[in-house]
Amino acid sequence: MPADTPTPAPRGDRGPHAPEDRATEARRRRASGGRALKSRRLRLARLEQLEHFGRPTPRPTGGASRLAWIDAARGLAIVAVVLLHVSIGHYYALPQAADWVVPRWDRINQVVAVIRMPLLFVVSGMLASGKIRRGFAHGNAILSAVTNYYLYLVWLAVYGFLFIASGPVVVPFQPARVQDFFIQIVEPRTPLWFVFGLAAYTLVFTALRRVPPGIVLAGSAAVSIWAGMTWTVESPLWTRILLYVFYFVLGVHAKPLILRHARSWWVLLGSGVLTVAFFQAFGLATLMTPKPLSFGDSVLSLVLQLAASVLGITASAQLCRWRPWRVVGSWVGRRTLGIYVMHVPVIVAWHFAVELGPLAVVETLTATSLWFDLLYPVLLTAFVVVVCVGIETLLGTLRLAHLFRLPSRLRRRLYRR
Asked: Greatest CA span in the chain, whole angstroms?
């Protein structure tokens, strides 16, 4: 090395205030601050998501508005469920203005049966698809399952209180013995079977998420067909969990396909034609038979309800082009859980009020006014839906939201990003 070339000092001999060190330290601090800010924003976002977990789905905005039809389809299905329970739990017991009115409403409920629960489970499967696909470690499948089972137990207790408060008056789904009530902790025998089923489905199909979808769909279809051959419409309600399992799995694994074709007029037309054709081939008498179905009839029933579910989804997607339907349907659809768990107690309370005197005028009107008699199930269904939403809102303001959501401490422990 030339003699006049200075030898650089070792790095450790540089002063602590060297320009390079100060620049490096500044960059390190900026990077650290950026990471801290990002981490803080992420924590806030996670806490906000956690706070809203289990609440009614917020109204979609911007690009998410295209999914309003999913909520509307779910709302349509839940209204059909309420209509059924209004009919069998109250309306059919009233005096009628004409002998043909109840048979007509009974026929309507029987026809709607081909779409009511299958549609509700397909949409439920679509909404649970993300949690199930992400698995236990990276999704909220455990939180969702625990929340649903928690709600099942809470409202089973509410039903039990209702059974006790009714005294000698028999209410729908009332068990004959005390032990028959407690067995429902693992064997649902009330309309709450749907909530129990969601918890079970979420756990089972999250565990099976790595199995090829075709195998899971085929297996669930086989279970549904077998259930149709084993049980009937008069069988215990827990058997419906096996009967409708295929439709939930379809919603989970066929979600991209459904989203792609939901607004197709051709799919709407084709599913409508197939639903009518299969319904004519199957027949209402076979659908509502008190005997188990044959293998062929059980397969036909599965295909019929599949076509009807597609019809319900595509019809909802097309109707959501009309703003009033989109607003009302999605408003109901975002609140289905509260409506589902509360509608039976509300119907029972209304029935008591009619039977015991305060609202006895209803019996007079159904017996004397044909128009009121015809419209009463629809009017009462709308009233029950609104009352359920109002009660849920009121209980939330009274710090009783735990009737509809898992307690915050448990949510925080189970929540996964």
From this structure: 121
Q: Give CA–CA dist 233/334, Å, rounded.
A: 29
Q: What percentage of the chain has pLDDT greater than the value 90?
A: 63
Reply yes or no on whether the pLDDT at 7 is more than 80. Answer: no
End-to-end CA, the chain: 60
37, burial (CB in 10 Å: exposed 0-12, middle 13-18, buried 19+): exposed
Cα separation values, 65 from 12, 84, 188, 372, Å: 61, 30, 36, 37
Q: Are 246 and 224 in contact (CB under 8 A)?
A: yes
Q: Would you put residue 9 in left (φ > 0), alpha (ψ -120 to 50) or beta? A: beta
Query: Considering the entire predicted model, what is its pTM?
Result: 0.83
Burial of residue 18 (CB within 10 Å: 0-12, 13-18, 19+) is: exposed
Q: How far apart are alpha carbons 238 and 194 in whole angstroms?
A: 9
List the structure tokens of 22. Answer: 């100060």
Q: Which of 67, 84, 278 is nearest to 194 (CA)?
A: 84
Question: pLDDT at position 61, please?
Answer: 44
Q: Summarize pLDDT for 263-284 with one digit per residue, the tens.
A: 999 999 999 999 999 998 888 7
Q: pLDDT per residue over 388-400, tens digit each? A: 999 999 998 888 8
